[in-house]
Amino acid sequence: MIFLRSTLFNLFFYGLTALACILCLPALFMPRPRAMRVVKAFVRSVYALEKLFIGLDFEVRGQENLPASGSFIVAAKHQSPYETMKLHILFDDPSVILKKELLKIPLWGKFLAKSDPIAINRGSKESAQQIIEGARRMQEQGRPIIIFPQGTRVYTWQTTQDKPYKSGAARMQETTGLTIIPLALNTGVFWPRRSWRKWPGKVVFEFLPPIAPGQAPGETMKQLEALLEAESKKLENEALTLNPRIPRSKRPPSP
Q1: For residue 60, what is the DSSP state?
Q2: Cα–Cα distance measured from residue 185 to residue 232, given in angstroms and rounded to the nearest whole number
Q3: CATH code: domain of residue 147
Q4: What is the dihedral sign for C-alpha 186, 187, 190, 192?
Q5: How many C-beta atoms lie closer than 10 Å to residue 100's C-beta?
Q6: Is 236 a residue whose pLDDT tops 90?
Q7: Is residue 65 a contact partner of residue 135, using CB atoms and an 8 Å limit?
Q8: What pLDDT, in 10s, does the model give residues 133-168?
Q9: Is the pLDDT of residue 254 over 70?
Q10: Is residue 9 assigned to a domain?
Q11: Could you list the residue range(s) of the whole structural domain that residue 169 is in?
Q12: Based on the structure, what is the number of domains in the chain?
């Protein structure tokens, strides 16, 4: 049953995405705020498909930790495509730090570019400066900035030794003086990376207490890593306890 429901969802999801990229082309010629309404309509449609076919929903905790207005930095765990499609539901006009290669995806990349992200050449010497310049630009616009400190999606079994944290969030804070809001989550339990199967249940997004500016970047990253890893693991264990049918993800054996 899980495989069938996942298959139906995947077929409708990829079909909807392809159709939306074509039918929504006029949005690329609209002012950005109007175009983002189209993007929000798409991600809400995907959310409806997730609930209908998979039985997958989400809840948000810790919203009191979010600033009432203005720009701030959200440093989030990244386990699944699921959270990337909830950013325009969780936030008003977010700017996401992403690799420039994504902007080259046919059609879809055009919509990403229209959202005005902070696009970087990941792994290059210029990436640090691109992040800082982008953060200053978003601060001027008063938009929330979303960064995934490990730089890529990670499996729930992967550790920080497998995927170390990068210093981008702390460097942005040092430059802008913005507050960092850690965002813990357990999306990888329900929608594992590179998995055809998706599991029913309720994803939790939890905004943790803010990390104020003023300390050394190294100390900021230690605090951020400790918070995100501990709280995300708690949420993963909570999800597995409430949904015992979901198999625990394990590190594959070495070849």
Answers
A1: E
A2: 5
A3: 3.40.1130.10
A4: negative
A5: 16
A6: yes
A7: no
A8: 999 999 999 999 999 999 999 999 999 999 999 999
A9: no
A10: no
A11: 58-242
A12: 1
The reply to whether 77 falls in a domain is yes
User: What region does 159 belong to: left with phi over 0, alpha with psi -120 to 50, or beta?
Assistant: beta
**Bridge partners of residue 97, in order along the sequence:** 118
Q: Hey, what are 144's tokens?
A: 């929330």
What are the tens digits of pLDDT across the range 14-56? 999 999 999 989 999 999 999 999 999 999 999 999 999 999 9
Q: Locate 23 and state its tokens.
A: 């039918």
Assigned domain for 251 exists: no
Place of tokens 């055009």: 110
Nearest alpha-carbon partner for 232 in 193, 201, 188, 195:
188
How far apart CA 101 and CA 99 sit, in angstroms, is: 5
Q: With respect to residue 66, please indicate whether it lies within any of the assigned structural domains.
A: yes
SS3 assignment for 97-130: EEEHHHHHCCCHHHHHHHCCCEEECCCCCCHHHH
Looking at the chain, how many residues does it have? 255
Per the DSSP assignment, residues forming a β-bridge with 95 are 145
